[in-house]
């Protein structure tokens, strides 16, 4: 039985191991939520795309308690942790790569924002175009997509792209050299060894929820897909190396 306290402990470990690869993770969260707040609604309706265990969703509701956040992911284990740790959040088990996912969100009005952090680069470019086009249908006019991820500069600026990656790599190396307690693989190995998570682990394996490489890591791939989906403006709100917060306005 996965308890509330155990789930919170696992998510705290998740957050710590993520910070090894994203030392500026909390700053990026803060900037993203600042942008949602700047939309001007005290009660925004927000879709969290690829929410994982709900780290971003929980921070968003903590800052904006009147917000409604619908958190979407396809990984049964991460969703199980999120549901146990954050019973006040709304989680939906949906695969963003499958057309029609928006019909199961249960929205009662167009969303003000869609947010994501370190998730959408796992989606292939053709699926990304389809997903963004469908997302546009449930965002209000003037609503935004805020995507925090590692997105490399375009192929026509290879030197800049290399330096962006180098800035991020040096930052991550310093984090691990300073005693980062756990990396991605170690966290998943520990999850697999916990008998209380066996059922969720089996569901995850059955669903094929693991990631197998970055599919859309270029800034241009996301920018072009968003413009074709009808977003009027696309740009970077915040950046450190290739770690950036991409914003698209509907």
From TrEMBL:
The keyword S-adenosyl-L-methionine does not apply. Transmembrane segments: none annotated. GO terms for molecular function: methyltransferase activity. One of its GO terms (biological process) is methylation. It comes from the Bacteria. Signal peptide: none annotated. Keywords: Methyltransferase, Transferase. InterPro entries: Methyltransf_25 (IPR041698), SAM-dependent_MTases_sf (IPR029063). Residues 46-143 form the Methyltransferase domain. Pfam families: Methyltransf_25. PANTHER family: TRANS-ACONITATE 2-METHYLTRANSFERASE (PTHR43861:SF1), TRANS-ACONITATE 2-METHYLTRANSFERASE-RELATED (PTHR43861). This is SAM-dependent methyltransferase.
């Amino acid at each position: 039985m996965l308890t509330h306290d155990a789930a919170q402990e696992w998510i705290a470990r998740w957050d710590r191991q993520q910070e090894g690869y994203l030392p500026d993770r909390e700053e990026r969260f803060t900037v993203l939520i600042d942008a949602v707040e700047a939309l001007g609604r005290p009660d925004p309706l927000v879709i969290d795309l690829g929410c994982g265990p709900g780290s971003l969703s929980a921070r968003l509701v903590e800052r904006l308690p009147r917000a409604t956040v619908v958190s979407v992911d396809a990984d049964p284990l991460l969703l199980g942790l999120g549901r146990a740790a954050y019973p006040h959040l709304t989680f939906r088990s949906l695969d963003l790569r499958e057309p029609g996912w928006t019909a199961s969100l249960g929205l009662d009005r167009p969303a003000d924002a869609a947010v994501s952090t370190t998730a959408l680069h796992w989606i292939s470019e053709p699926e990304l175009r389809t997903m963004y086009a469908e997302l546009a249908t449930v965002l209000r006019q003037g609503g935004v997509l805020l995507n925090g991820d590692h997105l490399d500069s375009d192929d026509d600026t290879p030197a800049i792209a290399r330096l962006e990656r180098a800035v991020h790599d040096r930052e991550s190396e310093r984090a691990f050299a300073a005693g980062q307690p756990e990396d991605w693989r170690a966290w998943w190995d520990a999850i697999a060894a916990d008998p209380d998570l066996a059922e969720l682990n089996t569901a995850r394996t059955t669903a094929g929820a693991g990631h197998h490489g970055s599919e859309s890591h270029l800034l241009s791939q996301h920018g072009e897909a968003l413009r074709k989906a009808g977003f009027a403006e696309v740009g970077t709100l915040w950046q450190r190396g290739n770690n950036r917060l991409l914003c698209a306005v509907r």
